[in-house]
Amino acid sequence: MAKSPPSRKSSKQDLKPQIRIMFRKAIAMGPGKADLLRAIDETGSISAAARQMEMSYRRAWLLVDTMNQAFKSPVVVTLTGGKAGGGAAVTEFGKEVLQRYSTMEEKASASVAKELRSFTDMMNGG
Amino acid sequence: MAKSPPSRKSSKQDLKPQIRIMFRKAIAMGPGKADLLRAIDETGSISAAARQMEMSYRRAWLLVDTMNQAFKSPVVVTLTGGKAGGGAAVTEFGKEVLQRYSTMEEKASASVAKELRSFTDMMNGG
DNA sequence: GTACGCTATATCCATAAGAATATAGCGACT
DNA sequence: AGTCGCTATATTCTTATGGATATAGCGTAC
User: Fold this and answer.
1) Does the distance separating the beta carbons of B24 and A126 come in below 8 Å?
2) Minimal-distance CA residue of chain B relative to A94
3) H or E stretch at A88
4) pLDDT tens digits, residue range B25-48?
5) A18 within 8 A of B19, measured Cβ to Cβ
6) C-beta neighbour count of A27 within 10 angstroms
7) Among A45, A79, B12, B76, which is least packed, fewest CB within 10 Å?
8) Which residues contact A85 (CB under 8 A, 6 or more apart)?
């Protein structure tokens, strides 16, 4: 039988340059943290975002903590208690960080798109 | 006393986009592997390159192995025995891979240079 | 044929990263 | 006052990563 495309995760098609902003050996901002910020903005909580991204709350919390430490102002603020038990929100500052990061991702990606394709040709079937 | 700048490793100034080419969850090519290729090309052996980069031979060998598996042709060929006990060389194909990767690094870096600087302003003193 | 230095590989160990779990605290709402 | 769901944190366990070490095999030079 023809092999059915089995829920492929990263394949050659996913190739893209990754921007990683380092801060004292830790990643202050990268693809994963950007996704997390978007998920927190969407869901309004760290734990909901973690569930959506299928990671542990602990890990999500640590990522948020790393970001908040790296930037001059918090990118995420939290509150405990309240009707929903608490929650988290991406600050305006955080949204700006995210926006600028996304811009960088797009620019970098566009700038190497052509080269990336010829690179693909040199690789085995990812 | 004033705290003297203690042999800083990565600081804000080092910020640059990283290109990582993935192959089945493994990094087929990235900054570290590119450096290793350059070191092998320079030294003519995996172990000398490993020493130069202060990593274990095992690790260097694994990195080479990953690359060779990811690409259609080997990027490094080795020979055992001989006057120097053996050695390794970056193939012409490997040099092309490296060349193209370096080009991508430069282009991506240039394309986001401006944004990267404003990003820096939002971060704490790295 | 012995020595040399490198490749190639296996084994074991230390450390780091992350998952899972447990628990405390909080505040709005009922 | 009690419930709820989330933040915040500690603890334990598993797994992954890499370092260190040991050994075998190889071919040239001596």
Assistant:
1) yes
2) B122
3) strand A86-90
4) 899 999 999 999 999 999 999 999
5) yes
6) 16
7) A79
8) none
